[in-house]
Design a protein that fits this description.
Layout (H helix, E strand, L loop, with lengths): L4 E7 L8 H13 L3 E7 L7 H18 L6 E5 L4 H17 L4 E5 L5 H4 L3 H11 L4 E4 L2 H9 L8 E3 L10 H8 L8 E4 L8 H10 L5 E4 L5 H10 L5 E4 L4 H9 L3 E4 L8 H8 L4 E4 L4 H5 L6 E2 L4 H12 L3 H18 L2 H15 L1
Parallel strand pairs: 1-2, 1-3, 3-4, 4-5, 5-6, 7-8, 7-10, 8-9, 10-11, 11-12
Length: about 350
Amino acid sequence: MKNKKKLLFWGELPPTVYHGISISNERILSALSTGFTIYTVKDNGSFGGRLRALFSFFISILKLTYVSHRKFDIYYTNMPMSYLGLWKIYLSVVCVKLISSNTKVVSHLHRGDFLDFIQTPRNKSLFEKLSTRIDSVLSLSETAKSELVGSGLINTDKVDVLYNTISITLTKTAIIENMANDFSQSDFYCLCNYISTKRIHHLVEIANAIPLERVRFNGAAESDSYMQKLIALNKEAVCYFNGVINGEEKEVALGQSKALVLPSLNEGMPLVVLESLAQSTPVICYDVGYIRDYVGSDYPGLVKEFTDEALKEKIEWINTLPSEEYLALRKYSFDLFWNNFDVNKINSSALNMFGRLA
């Protein structure tokens, strides 16, 4: 039997870190494990204060340097859009290549704010420096690839498109059976961590102003003070704030909702959009990042104007849809995911991309 190629990964992974990027990391590594022997070094530098983060990074660099003596075929990591985060990646690449010069480097860009990031001269310079040391950048969509290549900071032959997807616990048959139910009178749903930059407070204000009958929330809290702010804004008591939800419980919650509502203006391609579409639940969100590359520019739930009033109008629109039109929208949402982003199809693409590079 032919020996598997070896891949070294450094980054955030569940259950230590649980967000869209870490979930994608876990899924991609699982897909690659059929063709590669995987070694992981977890990045825990996002926990605690600055000193603890620096200490965690130092430990990670030591581990990477040590395991690099095994001469990996590929070093795979993410590409954060922060100056310090990108420096960490750059230093990790230098250390790995110093020990194993033939190792190919793959960096995955999950964010949708690349063009904003390189507006700062020091960010632009650092990205250009990093791009000379990596062999492939994985982007979320064709638009993301165009932005990278169009910047003039990286050659087109170094950029590939690997679409996001998600793993589903429920069977496709069960979802189809559920889709036949009329959830037009169900609750609206927001599945997002309680973070001020995600503008959860704006959705709470909108829900109370309409007022909606009920909006359910699930996520992790940024701080007690922010949660108290949300509670204070919930004057009509229409919003119900709950904690983290995962697995089949999350899929059921999405599948039984009228629509998923995301009030954030800072997104690349949030996995929760795909999670909702997979369950046939319509999505209401702003036309930001690369979301339109996934749902199409004409998706009915896209909010083109970046205002609270525009988001409010879209919520009111779907809230008054006749049952027949609403069920058609659920079918449209379901087909959008399963025809384009089936996990087996995307995982196969990932394995082919890494296989060609190795």
